[in-house]
Amino acid sequence: MADLTPDQIYDLLNRPGPLWLVGANLNGANLSAANLSHANLSEAQLSRARLTDANLFRADLSVCELGGANLSWANLREAKLNWAQLVRADLSDADLRKADLSWANLEFASLVGANLRGANLSAADFSGANLYGANLSLCNLSGADLRDTVMIGANLSEAQLREAQLVNLSGANLSGAILIRVSLNGANLNGANLASANLMHANLREATLDEANFIGANLSEANLGEASLCNADFSEANLSGIYLSGANLRNAILTRANLSRANLSGANLRGANLRGANLREASLAEADLTDADLTEADLRDCDLTGVKGLAM
Asked: pTM value?
């Protein structure tokens, strides 16, 4: 479709919908507060377009070019944005509930406060994006790239991350995030910031979490079996009832952590700092505590069968 003049755009927006604008060149167009509900904008050019407060409910924006576009406060509920290019786009406070963003490119995009509840984000690229305070509950994030994302205070409760070996959260900032029952089996979270995050009942089995920050986090009843947690910091974290059987916690910091009823059987705790930790009723059977610091740790009713490296 040829370039549209401002007058032609105005005329289109005042016609009865839904609009058919497949492949339209709307680069830089001012479409603020426009009613584009159910519009077909697939393959349209909307770079740097202004779509603040626009109504794009169930609109088709698949394969669109939206680089640098302003979509703040836009209604994108159930919209199709699969394969869309949204590099550095502003989607702050946008309503993206149940939207399809599969394979979309959102590098360095701003989604501060955006509502993505139930959205399909599979294989989407969020590297460098800002998801501060975003609602990602019940989202499908299978295969998504979340490297270097800011996810402070984000809600990822019950988000689906199937095929987690494709999920990369290395270096992500998830401090204070709600991750209740999230599935991150086998995910890469090396160096991630999860301070004060809520990971109750989360599945992080076989995940890579070396040097991750879990200070003050809640991981009660979480599954971290066989996970790699070398040099991770769990200071003052709630790890009650956690499953850490076979986990590698070499040189991990667990000072004043609550590990009551935790399962640490067969875990590698060589050089770990457990000063003041609560290990009441925990299982350390066959665990390796060589060079671990257990000063003032509470080991009452703890199972120490076959434990290695502990001076009895």
From this structure: 0.77
